[in-house]
Design brief:
With 172 residues, the chain is of the alpha+beta class. The protein has a single domain, classed as 2-Layer Sandwich (Double Stranded RNA Binding Domain). The protein contains four helices and four strands. A four-stranded mixed beta sheet has the order 1-2-3-4, with helices on one face. Helix 3 crosses helix 4. The longest helix has 31 residues. It starts with a helix and ends with a helix.
């Protein structure tokens, strides 16, 4: 019984400190959302996403559009999100005695810049990276499918990092 009352005390104190520190959820959508969150939502709708070259860039841009411009393309954007230097590095991991690789690691990196379109100044920069691995299988087709699935997953992670960075920056 003593353990439960101690645990209850800790939970109550944690909730008290969270409410006292000004903690508010980033994605508040209920009617109880505070004014800054509503303002953040309207600012997120003003972000234009620049084109990113190559097929991986298209996938990343589409993921960013889905995340940041869910209501549609902004008519009068205030910011432009620019992703550059999107690169992919693949290296062998598990190598057998016969020098055959059985697993590869893929790392995607990119540079993010948020540009204020009113002043044309870059107001935020950040390096993005995501890493994962896949098995090299007997069939070439299955290995290609594994590689492509991992690439798309890593691009989704990059879009999540970009979204989080922009939200935290603009939410200040």
């Amino acid at each position: 019984m003593r353990i439960y009352s101690g645990l209850l005390f800790v939970v109550l104190m944690a909730s008290f400190f969270l409410s006292a520190c000004g903690f508010t959820p980033i994605y508040a959508t209920s009617s109880s959302a505070t004014a800054p969150q509503g303002a953040l939502s309207s600012v997120m709708q003003q972000i234009e996403i620049a084109n990113i070259p190559d097929r991986s860039g298209q996938i990343l841009r589409n993921a960013l559009v889905d995340r940041l411009n869910a209501q549609g393309t902004p008519s009068a954007p205030g910011y432009r999100l620019e992703i550059s230097n999107l690169s992919e590095t693949v290296r062998d991991m598990d190598v057998t005695i016969r020098s055959d690789a059985t697993r590869e690691q893929m790392k995607l990196t990119a540079a993010l810049a948020l540009r204020d379109l009113e002043t044309q100044q870059i107001v935020m920069t950040k390096k993005l990276s995501a890493t994962g691995s896949y098995n090299i299988l007997e069939g070439e087709y299955t290995t290609r499918v594994s590689r492509q699935n991992l690439r798309e997953s890593l691009l989704t992670r990059l879009s999540e990092q970009a979204e989080r960075s922009v939200i935290l920056f603009l939410g200040r």
